[in-house]
Amino acid sequence: MAAMAGDVTLGTLVIHQPWARATPGGAQVGGGYLTIENRGTAPDRLTGGSLAASAGFELHSMTMDGGVMRMRPAGPLEIPPGHSVTLDPSGLHIMFTGLKRGLKQGETVPGTLVFDHAGTAKVEFTVEGIGAKGPNAGAATPHAGHSMPGMSMD
C-alpha cells in the first residue's frame, strides 16, 4: 500500500485512511475504520485510542448469526509483521461510545490510536456519509440511519 493523504506513520506502522461514518441525531455511538500496515519485523497490537467527540473507544467485531447482526467487544488487535489489518463496517471496527456530539459528513475529528510497541499515533478521522462503505464513498445505502431490525448488541 502506498502512503496517501491522511495516512499516519508511527515507527514501522502505517495507518491508512482513518474514517468514520456520520451519525444520526441523538446517536450515542459511532463507528471508525482504517487499515493498519506493519512494515516491521515484529508484531504490534492496537490496544486502545480516543476520539475527541466521544467518551469511549472500543474494538468490536461484527458477525451475522442466523440473519441477526451481532456486535461483541474484541480484545487487543494484533498486526503481524509484513501484514495489514483492515477495520471496516462489515467486521472488526472501532466503536466510539458516549458521543458528545454527532459526527457530521465532511468534517474531520481528531483522535489517537494506542499500540503496545509503537506508542500513540495522532490521527484525523474523516467523516463520510451515514451509510458509507469506505473512505470517500459517501452515503451508500438508501435507508442509512434508520432503525436496523435484527441487530443485537452482545
Automatic annotation (TrEMBL):
Disordered: annotated segments: 134-154
Gene3D superfamilies named among the record's database cross-references: PCu(A)C copper chaperone
Domain of life per record: Bacteria
InterPro entries hit by this protein: LpqE-like (IPR007410), Lxx211020-like (IPR058248), PCuAC_sf (IPR036182)
Pfam families hit by this protein: PCuAC
Coiled-coil annotated residue ranges, if any: none
PANTHER family in the cross-refs: BLR7088 PROTEIN (PTHR36302), COPPER CHAPERONE PCU(A)C (PTHR36302:SF1)
Protein name as annotated: Copper chaperone PCu(A)C
